[in-house]
Amino acid sequence: MVRDWYLDSFRDIRSFSEIKNMNDEKEFTEVIKAIKVRHNNVVPTMALGVQQLKKDVDPKIINQDFVEIHQFLDRFYMSRIGIRMLIGQHVELHSPNPPPHVVGYIHTRMSPVEVARNAVDDARSICSRQYGSAPDVHIYGDPDFTFPYVPAHLHLMVFELVKNSLRAVEERYMNSDKDPPPIRIIVADGLEDVTIKISDEGGGIPRSGLRKIFTYLYSTARNPLDEHADLGVGDNVTMAGYGYGLPISRLYARYFGGDLQIISMENYGTDAYLHLSRLGDSQEPLP
């Protein structure tokens, strides 16, 4: 299914005649806009494929390094991030009324604290919907500090990390009389990097599991595809289960020269460090 989408998109671009004037360019923009929409569900559809593969293959093989599949998916998703960035940038530059300080997808004065707040609100509402409540999240950092970045990318990364923390804390304190401890987000403005740390007291990850958290075949949660076979093609967001949040978030961070690191204390909690490069001179890490 995914391959066919790519074939259709490749055909659409190859068959578009040479652009000679502004009208042609406008038509081309509509074509690539439609291509971007066509590929909206690539990630959940691929997740569905990988989960089906996982079901059919001997678990012993899965647990040995499925190196080729991981490398392929890393290259595939990094390439997808790049393509969507280019199409999105081109399409957004045609916006008749862009907000101030925004150039296409890039916000030249993005406040990481503000983006983190929005991502936290989204993650907490999903957590409340699933569990009936959500732990508090405290954000520390200067709300007036800004730097150039793509808000959609940062929102996705913080949302995924906070969602993981909320789930861990909620499940750990579900049957406890104690109030769940808050999740803490710290935004630090360095000379080279802006670093966002997300700390929770959700019980952490055992060291044996840390190697697996950036692979596409591992999730500590129940597989949502087992319960809802159609979930892979909708826009539904579940709390967890695909095992895709961390590896894809790390690719988004690395796309602009940053990184994502996870440090865990088993039976206490997890710290996620999201490094965002602010030098503005990193090359696109093409696969």
UniProtKB/TrEMBL annotation:
EC number(s) recorded for this UniProt protein: 2.7.11.-
Q: Which UniProt keywords apply?
A: ATP-binding, Endoplasmic reticulum, Kinase, Mitochondrion, Nucleotide-binding, Pyruvate, Transferase
Gene3D superfamilies on file: Alpha-ketoacid/pyruvate dehydrogenase kinase, N-terminal domain (1.20.140.20), Histidine kinase-like ATPase, C-terminal domain (3.30.565.10)
> Which superkingdom heads the taxonomic lineage of this protein's source?
Eukaryota
Q: Which Pfam families match?
A: BCDHK_Adom3, HATPase_c
UniProt xrefs under InterPro entries: AK/P_DHK_N_sf, BCDHK/PDK_N, BCKD/PDK, HATPase_C_sf, HATPase_dom, His_kinase_dom, Sig_transdc_His_kin-like_C
What subcellular compartments does it reside in? Endoplasmic reticulum membrane; Mitochondrion matrix
Provide the top EC class. transferase
CC per GO annotation: endoplasmic reticulum membrane; mitochondrial matrix
> What GO annotations for molecular function exist for this entry?
ATP binding; pyruvate dehydrogenase (acetyl-transferring) kinase activity
Its recorded reaction(s) are: L-seryl-[pyruvate dehydrogenase E1 alpha subunit] + ATP = O-phospho-L-seryl-[pyruvate dehydrogenase E1 alpha subunit] + ADP + H(+)
Query: What CDD domains does its record include?
Result: HATPase_PDK-like
Q: How does it sit in the membrane?
A: Multi-pass membrane protein
Which segments constitute the Histidine kinase domain?
154-280
Q: What is its main location?
A: endoplasmic reticulum
Q: Which PANTHER family does the record associate with it?
A: [PYRUVATE DEHYDROGENASE (ACETYL-TRANSFERRING)] KINASE, MITOCHONDRIAL (PTHR11947:SF3), PYRUVATE DEHYDROGENASE KINASE (PTHR11947)
The entry's family comment says: Belongs to the PDK/BCKDK protein kinase family.
Question: What is this protein identified as?
Answer: Protein-serine/threonine kinase
Q: Which organism is it from?
A: Medicago truncatula (Barrel medic)
Q: Which gene encodes it?
A: 11406905
